[in-house]
Amino acid sequence: MTILKKFAAGIVALSLGLALLGFGAGQADANERYSKQKVVYHINYPGGDENKKYMGAMRNIQNHINAVGAENMEIKVVMHGNGVGLLQAAKGNKNMQGRILELKNQKVAFHICANTLRGRNIDLNNDLFDAYDEDVVPSGVAELSHLQAQGYTYIKP
User: From CA 132, how far away is CA 6, in angstroms rounded?
Assistant: First the structure.
């Protein structure tokens, strides 16, 4: 190999190495950027294509977890009004059930407004998917305020 070819090969190898180091540094910056987070997602949609909105909200939550890491997240989903429809719709929708269970397996907590259950005559055990007494909060709106006072970031997808 001529000196010129050796020099060119060295430059290419050096450039590739620096590019790889830069990529690794970018990944480290992303990991350092996203430290532990406490987040409350607010689900309460007006009439319309709620199922599409519910799936979009759950996709947002999963994307958030993917970016930050489940081990760095404390996520609560507060549902009131039409937002409780997420768990109603999931009763007959296997795709929604899978998404909910996947999020719960990553420690996402789903909170249900007791006022909505009473006001709309919704039976926790028969009308909602994978809902339990410990998931019910006295008031969805009061819960949102309570969690924000505890340092949770509010997100309305």
Answer: 69
Give CA–CA dist 107/24, Å, rounded.
29
| Burial (CB count <10 Å: 0-12, 13-18, 19+), residue 123 | exposed
Contact 140, 44 (CB under 8 A): yes
Query: pLDDT tens digits for the chain (157 residues)?
Result: 555 444 444 444 444 444 444 444 444 444 567 889 999 999 998 766 888 999 999 999 999 999 999 999 999 999 999 999 999 999 999 999 999 999 999 999 999 999 999 999 999 999 999 999 999 999 999 999 999 999 999 999 9
Place of tokens 């519910």: 54
DSSP class of residue 134 equals G
Retrieve residue 123's tokens.
């039976």
CA-CA distance, 121 to 127, in Å (whole number)?
Answer: 10
Rounded distance, CA 6 to CA 89, Å?
66
Give CA–CA dist 157/146, Å, rounded: 19
Q: Is the sign of the CA dihedral 128, 132, 137, 143 positive or negative?
A: negative
